[in-house]
Amino acid sequence: MIHIVTPQNIHLYQDEMEQAYRLRHRIFVDEMKWTDLAKPDGREIDQFDNEHAVHMLCVADGKVLGYQRMLPSTRPHLLSDILPQLCEDERPVGAHIWEWTRYCVDPAHRERGRALSPVANALLSGIVEWGLESGINTIIIEMNPLWLLRLVQLHFRTIPLGLPQSVGGQDVVAVTASFDRRTLLRLQEMRGDSRRVLIQPQQTRPMRLAG
Could you list the residue ranges that cross the membrane (predicted)? Predict the structure, then answer.
């Protein structure tokens, strides 16, 4: 299940957010070698982890298996403040456009081959469900160009904002990816389950057994 963490409920997710920051450090610093993000405490946190960020956690049995962060395009975000060179034309801005960042999945729960892993599918489905319910239909992504075909296969409508450039020793392209109900149906079809992945509003935190 995907948990939405906002400034209003982040105090209920202190342990899970601690796990998420450490997962980010393991993936982006230790694995991907983005050494500029390294922190002595092993927690990857930046200036965009603020009151405007929406965090999405994939949690199972109290463990964070996957994470992603959404940032409003109407506020400072990666494309506007850190990687503006990736956008060759007018930067996409609007209440219906958010930036998708810091996507990461625990190595033990990643896909093998071309199929999305259950955690990856749940995270993407969470974006689409949340977006459809929040008046959001487009995300900005800075990603490896190889992801372009994957997104099209998932029924996102992608538009590159410029040519790929080297960032941290890797090719990165900025795109907008729009989605609608058909995208959600495609993700549901791929996992063979049409149930909602976002927890219901009254479920404000993961269930824990006493003892």
Answer: none
